[in-house]
Design a protein that fits this description.
protein methylthiotransferase activity, 5-stranded parallel sheet, 3 domains, OB fold (Dihydrolipoamide Acetyltransferase, E2P), Rossmann fold, pyruvate-formate lyase- activating enzyme, single chain, 12 helices, 5-stranded mixed β-barrel, alpha/beta, disordered C terminus, binds iron/sulfur cluster
Length: 458
């Protein structure tokens, strides 16, 4: 790499929201004429975007900072763990600057302090209109808000990222349009709390992309659905809490405007534990709602995450969670053993669950869900569905169905799919399944039909 231009290395840790922060920082630096590198040696300085959500993430962040200091020496730290700067500077006093999440201007200024931006900027036109993306060309995260108004007792995100601040809906839609024009086929809508989008601006209506649009999850989903709809352009909603307004996005899924997929972190199913977590706790209503949504959208995929071993969780309360899993028959489920996060109010609750009990509950949870998942996946064998190709390897094509978000859900392996291209929609027949993944054969090139009745019937 030529060293005529100042060059910045970046390491991005953590969740998709942090990835979007990194993309914004890189876009700004590239616009100013900085070169980007993934080598410590070529970099004039290295930015580490940290995660501070759980203890293991804190440790990974601190280790990464240590490695960057050892290999390069000029390290700028940002992101969630940066909100607790003393944690970083106590371990790594030589870092050059520390800032919290979404602190784009501070990071860029810290880079300027290490190495000034080039005066003449011949690279400005090399920044694509959609900005710098860290995801493959055919999918992108679309961040719609910062922060969160909840105060879940196990979580310190609000203390790091602050209360909910929604991006103007006109900005969000303009970005979505730019991404589509740049070749993105799937948008992953992310935030801390997608169903609460717009609550801070009282759901104000803005003129966006030529028409009045409400700053709300429903208004945004309607507008994103106009960008093509399932069959041409996938829109996937993440971090949707079970508020009543979810009812209003279900018809958009039934009409094929957005993907029939809800990522809904429920965390537990026992009312007392949910109360101790400060989460909305009417489990019967959640079950009722799930049933109603599935009547409207039979191929709806519901993904959720849960915590076992929360302080004070009894065996009976854990059993309620297993009963809920059996009743809800969720499609995709993640489970974490409770781990105390420095600064979380749940640490003040007495009665920690012993580690061996947590492990035992986690294993029983996973056994239950694996059985449910295996049955659900087996029911897909023989179905015909639309998939999106992610990559080609020596075995064939690796794709995802509408039920699979990148990184967190399953894959669809397409035998003999060597002729396919990443970013291509293909119609396949499912020929085999295990608990998480599917195997398929292509049956025809996908036509631009929006008739979702022939797409993923399960
Ligand atoms: S909803 Fe709860 S878990 Fe999610 S970011 Fe807000 S406080 Fe944290």
């Amino acid at each position: 790499m030529s060293k005529q231009q100042p060059t910045v290395g970046v390491i991005s840790l953590g969740c998709p929201k942090a990835t979007v922060d990194t993309e914004r920082i890189l876009t700004q630096l590239r616009t100013e004429g900085y070169q980007l590198t993934n080598s410590y040696e070529d970099a004039d300085t290295v930015i580490v975007n940290t995660c501070g959500f759980i203890d293991s993430a804190v440790q990974e962040s601190l280790d990464t900072i240590g490695e960057a200091l050892a290999e390069n020496g000029k390290v700028i730290v940002t992101g969630c763990l940066g909100a607790k700067s003393d944690v970083i500077t106590q371990v790594h006093p030589k870092v050059l600057a520390v800032s919290g999440p979404a602190a784009y201007a501070e990071v860029v200024q810290a880079v300027h302090d290490v190495i000034a931006p080039p005066k003449h900027n011949p690279f400005i036109d090399l920044v694509p209109p959609q900005g710098i993306k860290l995801t493959p060309k055919h999918y992108a995260y679309l961040k719609i808000s910062e922060g969160c108004n909840h105060r879940c007792t196990f979580c310190i995100i609000p203390s790091m990222r602050g209360d909910l601040v929604s991006r103007p809906v006109s900005d969000v839609l303009a970005e979505a349009k730019r991404l589509k024009e740049a070749g993105v086929r799937e948008l992953l809508v992310v935030s801390q709390d997608t169903a609460a989008y717009g609550v801070d601006v009282k759901y104000k209506t803005e003129f966006a992309e030529g028409r009045p649009t409400k700053t709300s999850m429903v208004g945004l989903s309607e507008a994103l659905g106009e960008l093509g709809g399932v069959g041409e352009f996938w829109v996937r909603l993440h971090y949707v809490y079970p508020y009543p307004n979810v009812e209003e996005v279900i018809p958009l899924m039934a009409q094929g405007k957005i993907l029939p997929y809800l990522d809904m972190p429920l965390q537990h199913a026992n009312p007392r534990v949910l109360k101790a977590m400060k989460r909305p706790g009417n489990v019967d209503k959640t079950l009722e709602r799930i049933k109603k949504w599935r009547e409207q959208v039979p191929n709806l995929t519901i993904r959720s995450t849960f915590i076992v071993g929360f302080p004070g969780e009894t065996e009976d309360e854990f059993q309620d969670l297993l009963d809920f899993l059996e009743a809800a028959q969720l499609d995709r489920v993640g489970c974490f053993q409770y781990s105390p996060v420095d600064g979380a109010t749940a640490n003040e609750i007495a009665e920690p669950v012993p580690d061996d009990v947590k492990q035992d509950r986690w294993e029983r949870f996973m056994e239950t869900q694996q059985r449910i998942s295996a049955n659900k996946m087996q029911a897909k064998v023989g179905q015909i569905m639309q998939v999106l190709v992610d990559e080609i390897d020596e075995q064939g094509a690796i794709a995802r169905s509408m039920a699979d978000a990148p990184e967190i859900d399953g894959l669809v392996f397409i035998e003999d799919g060597f002729h396919l291209q990443p970013g291509e929609f293909v119609t396949v027949e499912i020929v085999a399944a295990d608990e998480y993944d599917l195997w398929a054969k292509p049956i025809a090139e996908f036509t631009e039909s929006k008739d979702t009745s022939f797409i993923e019937l399960g």
